[in-house]
Design brief:
Number of strands: 8
Helix content: 10-25%
Number of domains: 2
Distance between the termini: 40 Å
Radius of gyration: 23 Å
Bound molecules: zinc ion
Strand content: 15-25%
Strand order of the largest sheet: 2-1-6-3
Length: 175
């Protein structure tokens, strides 16, 4: 249905903030809360009016949205570490998670303590500390920065939207 067509929503400062459907976009334009920023040359007719079909709209006011923190999951840790064992540097499909400070020594489940390790390295390190086993990660792990455009990756981007999307997070593909 045409009213379900996706429309990119830009903040007042032109930063993409959301995707809505045409019905919502027309509603925002009608209430003078947003403007159409891409001329599509296509029109929609209602009972008593005619609208240009919106494709990208810009809000007339700033919307502040808290950045969503990444959830600590196996997959997110592997993505952060680019599917690379952080001890030997090999790229693996069947990575494991290693606690840098082992659980038995009080190491917790946190972005700073969880790292991608191949089975061999994980086995070698086991319940020991880095010092005990003489290993060092390629990079000490940190919490990844939130991606403000995460909502875009869930959808197919239309070619008309690309000029408005400064950066689209592409997830690395396992080797
Ligand atoms: Zn390894």
């Amino acid at each position: 249905m045409i009213l379900q067509t996706r429309v990119l929503v830009l903040n007042q400062n032109y930063q993409p903030i959301n995707i809505c459907n045409i019905r919502r976009a027309i509603n925002l334009i009608g209430k003078e809360k947003a403007e159409n920023v891409v001329e599509t040359g296509e029109y929609l007719r209602s009972v008593d009016d005619i609208f240009e079909k919106p494709d990208v709209i810009r809000l007339f006011y700033m919307v502040k949205r808290p950045l969503q923190k990444k959830k600590l999951t196996r997959r997110e840790v592997f993505i952060r570490d680019r599917f690379q064992c952080q001890y030997c540097g090999s790229f693996q499909k069947d990575l494991t998670l290693d606690h840098i400070i082992p659980r038995c020594k009080g190491g917790g489940l946190s972005w700073n303590n969880i790292i991608s390790a191949c089975k061999k390295c994980n086995h070698r390190k086991a319940g020991k500390t880095l010092q005990e086993v003489g290993m060092e990660p390629i990079k000490y792990p940190k919490e990844p920065k939130p991606n403000p455009y995460i909502f875009i990756s869930e959808y197919n981007i239309k070619s008309t939207w690309i000029p408005f999307i400064p950066w689209v997070k592409k997830e690395p593909i396992p080797a």
